[in-house]
Structure formats: C-alpha cells, structure tokens
From TrEMBL:
<keyword id="KW-0378">Hydrolase</keyword>
<dbReference type="InterPro" id="IPR001360">
    <property type="entry name" value="Glyco_hydro_1"/>
</dbReference>
<protein>
    <recommendedName>
        <fullName>Beta-glucosidase 11-like</fullName>
    </recommendedName>
</protein>
<dbReference type="GO" id="GO:0005975">
    <property type="term" value="P:carbohydrate metabolic process"/>
</dbReference>
<comment type="similarity">
    <text>Belongs to the glycosyl hydrolase 1 family.</text>
</comment>
<dbReference type="Pfam" id="PF00232">
    <property type="entry name" value="Glyco_hydro_1"/>
</dbReference>
<dbReference type="InterPro" id="IPR033132">
    <property type="entry name" value="GH_1_N_CS"/>
</dbReference>
<feature type="signal peptide">
    <location>
        <begin position="1"/>
        <end position="20"/>
    </location>
</feature>
<dbReference type="InterPro" id="IPR017853">
    <property type="entry name" value="GH"/>
</dbReference>
<keyword id="KW-0325">Glycoprotein</keyword>
<keyword id="KW-0732">Signal</keyword>
<dbReference type="GO" id="GO:0008422">
    <property type="term" value="F:beta-glucosidase activity"/>
</dbReference>
Amino acid sequence: MSISVHLLVLSLLLVIGSYDDDVQFFVYGVVDEYRRDDFPAEFVFGSGTSAYQVEGAVLEDGRSFSIWDTFAHSGYYNGANGDVACDGYHKYKEDIQLIADTGLEAYRFSISWSRLIPNGRGPVNVMGLQFYNDFINRLIANGIQPHVTLHHDDLPQILEDEYGGWLSRKSMKDFVAYADVCFREFGDRVLHWTSFNEANVFALGGYDMGFSPPGRCSSPFGVFINCSRGDSTSEPYLAAHHLLLAHASAVRLYREKYKAMQHGFVGINVLSYWFEPYTNTTEDVKATERANDFYLGWFLNPLVNGDYPEIVKKNAGNRIPSFTKIESERVKGSFDFFGINHYNNFYVKDNPSSLETDIRDVNADMAATLISADGGSEPLPTQFPVTPSGLQNLLNYLKEEYGNPPIYIHENGQVQARNGTLMDTARVEYLHAYIGALLDALRNGSNTRGYFAWSLLDLFELLGGYNIGYGLYYVDLDDKELTRYPKLSAHWYANFLKGHNVTAIIPSLNLTKDSFVSSH
Ligand SMILES: *[C@@H]1O[C@H](CO)[C@@H](O)[C@H](O)[C@H]1NC(C)=O
Ligand SMILES: *[C@@H]1O[C@H](CO)[C@@H](O)[C@H](O)[C@H]1NC(C)=O
Ligand SMILES: *[C@@H]1O[C@H](CO)[C@@H](O)[C@H](O)[C@H]1NC(C)=O
Ligand SMILES: *[C@@H]1O[C@H](CO)[C@@H](O)[C@H](O)[C@H]1NC(C)=O
Ligand SMILES: *[C@@H]1O[C@H](CO)[C@@H](O)[C@H](O)[C@H]1NC(C)=O
Ligand SMILES: *[C@@H]1O[C@H](CO)[C@@H](O)[C@H](O)[C@H]1NC(C)=O
C-alpha cells in the first residue's frame, strides 16, 4: 500500500488514536459513536473460527484426514499445517471461557465432518460426537448461541479419493446424510446452521485457481500453484452446481424432518467484496454488474430466483450445468438467511478481450479485471484499507437486488502480520468503523441479524497459514502451552459488548506499545 493511500484512509476516517505511555491509556476518538444498545436486542454479536483452523488433533480419537489436511501437507504452506493449530480440541474449555469473558453473545464454529464420520458416510465416531456435544453444551451453559457451519473447506479426503469429492453427484447424498446426523444430534441446541462456508471461494480456489483445498486447476489459471490436475474451465462450475444442490437437499431435509420440532434456520455463506466501477464509462459499470453476477449471483440467483444469472450462463456456455425443472424448484427459496463474509473492496475494469479465447475459466468468463482498492498488486495485503462504506453499500445492494433477505455477517476483520504485538490498534479502528457502518445500514432497512468478527484466535489461515492473523486473541506458537493473550481488540470488543460507549477512553489495559508476547 502506498503512503498516500495510507494518509488518505486516515484522513477520511478522522481517526485519532494516541498512546500515553505513563498512564498506559489508549485514547480512541472517532467522529462516530455508538453502543451495543443502539442495535436491536435480538441482533447477535459474536466471533468465530473453523474446525481445521483451530482444532489440531487431526488423527486423534478416530478423526481422518480432510481435503484441507491433504492440501496443507502437500507443501502449499511451506511446511505449515493444521496438525496442532491452536490445539482447540484439547483447550476448548479454556477457549469457551475466553468467549464468555469477552462477552460474546454467539460463537460461530464448524464441525469437522471427518471427525464426526471418519469414513465420510456410515458410522458416527462416538468420540467426535462427544466432543461436539460437550462443546455445544458448554456454550449454551454460558448463554452463548452456537452458529454451526457444516463444511468449511474440509470434505473427508476418503470421499475425494473415492469419487472425486464435489465433482461427483455422489457428494450430495453423503453431505445430506452428514447434515442429517448433525441436525439429529445437535439440532435440539443449535438453531443456526450454515451448509457451506464461502461456497464461491471454495469453487474458485479449489477448482479454478487452485489456492485452496482440494487445490485443483489447469494451466494457465493456477495462482501460487503448479496445476497438476483439474480443469479450471469447467470444474468450478460443476463443483458449485453440486454445492448448490447439496445445500438445497440439506435444507429440504431440515424443513421436512426437523424444522417443526427444532425451529432452526439453515443458510449458506459466500465471500462478498464490494465492487465499484473503475471509471464511470458504460463498459466499466456493466463490468461491475458482471462481477456481482459472477461472485454473488452465481450462488444467490439460483437460491432466490431458481437459476444462474443470464450473463453467467451465456459466457460459460456448455461448461456450466443447467438445473432441471425439479432442481430449480428445489434450489429456489432453499435458505433462511445468507451468511456474508466481507473484508474489502475492488474496482472493476471491463476486460472484453478475455472472451476472445475459447479456453476460459470463471474469471475470463467474467470479462472484468479486479483492481485492489489500495492500488496494490499484493493478493494478500498486510492490512486492509478501512473503507466501511463498502459494507454499507453491499448491505444495501443485497436489500435491493435480492429482496432484503436475512443476513448474518459471518466474517469481517482486519489482517495483520502475526508478530506477537498485542497493540492491534489497526484492528480496533477497522472493527469500530465496520460495526458503525453496519449500524447505518440497519437504520436504512437492512435485514442483517448478526455480526461475527473474524476471528476469535490467531489461527491457521486459508491464505497465509500462520504468517498472518485476524484474532482478537494472540496464540503464542513458541510456547508449547499455546497460551492465548487478549489483544487490544479483544478488550475493545468486550467493552462494546458490555454496553459501554465505544468512543470513550478505554481504561488501563496494561498494554503499551511494547506489549509483545514474543517476536517471530
Ligand atoms: C512450479 O514449477 C516450476 C517449474 O517446475 C518451479 O520452478 C516452481 O517453483 C513451481 N512452483 C510452485 C509454486 O510449486
Ligand atoms: C462516478 O460517478 C459518481 C456519481 O457521480 C461519482 O461519485 C464517482 O466519483 C464517479 N467515479 C469515478 C471513478 O469517476
Ligand atoms: C508487528 O506488526 C505491526 C503491524 O502489523 C507493526 O506495527 C509492529 O511494529 C510489528 N512488530 C514487530 C515486533 O515486528
Ligand atoms: C439507503 O437505502 C436506499 C435504498 O435501498 C439507498 O438508495 C440509499 O443509498 C441508502 N442510503 C445509505 C445512506 O446507505
Ligand atoms: C461517549 O463518550 C464520549 C467521550 O467520553 C462522550 O463525549 C459522549 O457524550 C458519550 N456518549 C454517550 C452516548 O454516552
Ligand atoms: C495492571 O497491572 C498491575 C500490576 O501488574 C495490576 O496490579 C493491575 O491489577 C493490572 N490492571 C488490570 C486492569 O489488569
């Protein structure tokens, strides 16, 4: 990020943060001020993680490998993997205490399919069942709502090996059987279910660009990976199609078998940037609509309207499967909410030349170039620009375009290098600004029901492994106890959740500029 953009971001936000080393006070002043009470009482605030990113214990108590274990062990993260992660499988009691101490009202986590059903289908692993039962019971005992994701990039590897995972229609039946076990065993206490985390990124990363499990792609479409197997021109569309059908079938099962008794809700999650046209030319404005259709419409249009957006069907041609009439009817309306992960914005520039070749992936079909809002070329910024109007615009867009569906913001947060500092002022600024934007969107009629800061802990990140972190809590990897330490953001969030005015001075936290746990 260039210095001028830094200055621009700072001046736009009118954020003044300063330290007084003598009294160890953090003085935080912004134009906006709000408190928990400004949000509806039934709105929930929380934070989250996912199974592979925190649990570790990957071959313990009967768990088998998922496609993410395999992907990590293929060397993608230069030797790092989730074998231990935050050791959440053993430290969950301590973690739930942190969750309670922080005042979180809800906690988002995922169930490891290969821990619960190690063969992918068939017998349930009693140890896995007991772990998630204890986990959920402990959350409930502390008054914390569990929000559970069923698939967070971690299909059992055994199903990938057997029939190619999500490329096969067989995956749908196994997913529904797995969902059935979860609804049956945990649905008396879990009311909020999400079928797939970042379904769009899973399809793009896993089958087009190869940067996420199962890491499939074909040349020249791989990003940071040599494509050795896959077909980026068609597999992302095929996998996405099966995700949608599997999701719809799981929702149907829930509605027919459990809804009347359990009264819960089932949704799906997508990653969503906010897109702005790079210029106001008709070409760039149209390219921006296409970007929305390819990123969001790819999943949300079938769910709301029963089919893919016209432009997606047109540009992907026979590489995208079509829904039969029955499938279309099943997919349409098969959601109670949308989970949205949002971090940053992109400018969109028309790129018509990408349609001139027959060998096209999803990005080429989109015929648009995404340009990072901070002007940088880094795919993974060391820090996101703080542009909360993106979230506000996105929530307005979902309201207008998709009939104001219930929304949970499942992930939002600031990334930083993971170097041991607890003074994550940039994260506090980010969270303060985005929660403020959310409040503005709610006041403007958005049907958003909850907000989950990503992430509770510094964990094993999909992009970046252990080099970066979004955590409210730092996990010291040099300490064999993997001790958790609250960052300033944990104190700030707790302060907000306790009902305090978040523009106020945060009292002594015993944190100073020199508060480092260790340096890496
Ligand atoms: C890809 O393959 C090339 C040539 O074999 C090699 O130089 C490069 O390091 C590989 N890149 C990755 C990310 O594996
Ligand atoms: C496009 O037009 C809008 C509204 O007039 C304006 O706010 C925006 O700055 C313009 N964008 C560019 C890139 O010129
Ligand atoms: C850690 O990173 C933050 C920003 O991400 C930076 O301000 C700080 O100086 C770094 N500290 C160390 C010890 O490298
Ligand atoms: C409020 O919503 C309306 C209609 O959805 C939209 O046109 C307007 O820009 C929004 N205002 C703000 C401040 O977000
Ligand atoms: C919030 O705190 C600031 C600074 O202490 C104060 O000026 C402001 O009046 C407070 N607002 C509310 C709503 O309590
Ligand atoms: C800060 O540290 C001092 C000395 O270690 C301790 O007495 C005090 O209770 C701490 N304050 C807080 C708010 O933790």
